[in-house]
Amino acid sequence: MSENKTLEELTKYFKDEFKTKIKSIDIKKRATGSKKKETSTIWMKIDKGVFKDAIKHLVDYQYPHLAVVSGNDLGENIELIYHFTVNYGERLREINLHISVELPKSKPEIESICDLIPGALITEREKQEFLGVKIKGIPDNRKLFLPDDWPDEVYPWRRDETGPEKYYKNLHEVNK
Amino acid sequence: MAKGLPKSFKKALWVYHCNSGSCNGCDIEIIAALCPRYDVERFGIKLVGSPRHADALLVTGPVTRQLADKIKRIYEQMPDPKAVICIGNCGNTGDVFYESYNLIGPVNKILPVDVHVIGCPPRPEAIINAVAQAWVKLETLEA
Amino acid sequence: MSSKTTTKTTYHIPVGPIHPALKEPVFFEFEIDGERIVDVDVKLGHVHRGIEWASRKRNPIQILYLAERVCGICSYCHPAAFTLGIEDAANIEVPERAEYLRVIQGELERITSHMLWAGVAAHEIGFDTVLFLTWEMREKIMDLTEFLCGNRVTKGIMTIGGIRRDITKDMIPQITKSLDYLKDNFEKIRHIFLDDKTVKLRSQGVGILTKDEALKLCAVGPTTRASAIKKDVRVDTSYFAYGDLDIDYITPDVLTGEVNGDVYDRIIQRLLEIKQSIELIEQCLDIMPNGDIISEPKIPKLLNQLKKVEGEGVGRHEAPRGEVIHYVKLTGEDAPYTWKVRAPTYNNILPWIPMLKGEQIADIPIVAASTDPCMSCTNRVGIIKDGNKYELKKEEIHRLSVEKTRRLMS
After folding, report:
1. For chain B, what is the domain count?
2. DSSP C359
3. Cβ contacts of B21 on chain A, cutoff 8 Å
4. Do B32 and C135 touch (CB under 8 A)?
5. What is the pTM of this model?
6. How far is C136 from chain B (nearest CA, A)?
7. What is the complex's ipTM, to 2 decimals?
8. Is the bond leading into C17 cis (omega within 30 degrees of zero)?
């Protein structure tokens, strides 16, 4: 395992490899407590085509900790954000790394990262059933949280016509 | 204890607990009622592992879609006379989850409820009070 | 002798267990050959209440109350992570005294959760007396929680920009009294769990999670620290007042000198964390500065301030079970655009599979409970015996576990 990189070295590591395919990198620092110790965060937007290579590049540096994958429905596109952390194991050295990818709603497909990071299985299954994203190469394709008799084309986190509006329930109602 | 309870208890009340999708707050308070601080076992109330031995059913949680028919089946497995106690706000009205797409309804749409206990979660004393009231109902039913 | 037909019924009993890990229902399916487990399958979703979707109609203060009810046992960590996410997105400054108070409340919750777990683990092995003993001690800490926050379980003490109740000077003797009670009795618990021959026989060498598997499956919390991976959000990053405190990673080799990754190591891990929490609370009470406890006490002003914010934020907190992460996106309306919740148990589900392979049926309760899941097992176990498949219910598995202990004791 290589030496822990600092924040600037890590940004340079990604920028050198992917150059224009990275759409933006934002760095944020937040200080808390009386002694004002800081924690840094990198928000990175990358192109869908180099997504798998970027993850491989990250695993080559240090095996990251994948916390979760969150998703946004942005109207025309679906945005997936992968929340990683690196440099754990030493006091106050951890760096948060959030990599986000945009997928068009007409073809919401992305490759699975379960061969590189086996712990991503549960969160990828969740994205398939809640946002309607097709994850290619996922080892296990079943539904995770929704019941088995849930209709196929209804995606609870979407904000368009495939959302769960028809399934609203008002349990407070008193039928007189 | 509740009024109207005869001085010599004819039987000890056995209780079966069923979680229909709750956040576990109410469940932990039920177990805390068994522990030495509140100590329900001195009244003879016992938590059993099978609905076929139970007299009263404690239901917690808003009923999710996956568990609605299972609760009904448990109720049918219990022998008469039986009582149903709905613990916590989730089973009564849905609490903060009242609009969710995965919930079937308050428990009294699925089972006939005898005692409602409100609170999020209700204190162990309130739970003991509820079981005692169900006890009175069962005793009067039998007599 | 039975014929070679496989008959598997689909009769479900949702949760039915008498044991105190009464948490969410989960459906396990095991493939068993003789007494050994060959394969495990987990099915979730019985407690899906659509919380993230419900947040689309609520403003951030209402979401705090929704977040508390995600889990009743860790009812402080979800509002904590959500608040961290909002404060990250909106760049809100929190007063220093509030950060220390937040640490104290978080560590109190950690102590109650670990004592609850200790009772559950003892019950799974078959020692009901230890269950009553640890829960009685836990009641003293619940009294302290009620004294400080007003309620035992859903405390409602976290708010955006600070904390709702202060700890004044006249409350401190009561806190010290409760912590002294814990410190005096800690040796008793340690002796019961770690020096007892039967506990060692049941838990050493059982349910092993190797360091490599814990790393690859992204396990979190005491489960991964007991396998010698140093991941702890309080030590790695600076949030609340943890950056100022003297804190270090705890792994089982602090006590025993070696790490095996089995159930015994996880028991050691949690007992050591109780001790660490008591020390952290005492450190905080010593160095807490004076000052405000909330940055914006008027709620309508706070909500107006949040309405003008556009941005994303992530909040991470070390709950008793592991790392909690919340992601919030604010777009200038009343309700947040997106709110993603990830409880720690969801990362600890996949490690069940390598832990349970090769174990006996009677060890299932203690191995599953050793990761402190915030869900309970709706089990139906499928056995392959002479080509037939049977169904076992949760009570039977618990009975098998207790019987194994009696066999080992005699």
Report:
1. 1
2. -
3. none
4. yes
5. 0.89
6. 6
7. 0.91
8. no
